[in-house]
Amino acid sequence: MKNIAIFISGSGSNMKAIVENIKQNKITGVKPVLVLSSTVKAGGLEYAKNSGIDTAVFSYKGLNPEQISDGLITLLNKYDVDFIILAGFIKILPEKLVKKYKGRILNIHPSLIPKFCGKGFYGLKVHEEVIKAGETETGATVHFVDEGVDTGEIILQRTCPVYQDDSAEVLQKRVLKIEHELYSEAIAKVIEL
Ligand code: GRF
Q1: 127 with 110: CB under 8 angstroms?
Q2: I need a surface site. Which of 8, 75, 136, 160 has the fewest CB within 10 A?
Q3: Are 9 and 90 in contact (CB under 8 A)?
Q4: Which residues pair with 108 in a beta bridge?
Q5: Is residue 182 within a helix (H) or strand (E), and if so which, with residue range?
Q6: Nearest CA, atom 12, ligand 1
Q7: pLDDT digits (tens, 9 = 90+) for 59-70
Q8: Distance CA 186, CA 144 (A)
Q9: Residues 5, 84: contact at Cβ < 8 Å?
């Protein structure tokens, strides 16, 4: 059994989808032991608590990279975490942590990497840019996290169409729907590696 920690900052819909898939035995061999949020405001925290998963709020505020990685590593050790699942976690992980967990940190991005990713590409902005560029296809990508931003090895990608009258909000919803299936599939794939 592999222990996973899911890191969130927002609504946590990807986290919820992963936890639901585990509850329904659609993914086996993984146990969510911790949901960590960068802010107390993350909507997903309540859901995690109600699902019987331990939660933690870890703010980067006033901490240097060394203190951030030491703080996070202490928490991850406490829960004997094998894999870190970034699910809308808005903060960049410090290099020391990324090195320690190399090959064991996953992230999901709402575009077809290498398109529309990197610094500044998060939230609605990604979908606005896809529409602006006149793309007819977009999608989601699950990848390993390395020292760069959205540069790690790709695990799985899935596409969906972009329609001419799409707003960024509509497109975001379409992509999120894919994300909710894709992330669990990618976790299952990595666990089997
Ligand atoms: C998702 O679009 C994900 O691809 C990106 O952040 C968003 C998180 O959404 N990294 P949610 O909090 O899982 O609903």
Answers
A1: yes
A2: 136
A3: yes
A4: 142
A5: helix 168-192
A6: 12
A7: 999 999 999 999
A8: 10
A9: yes
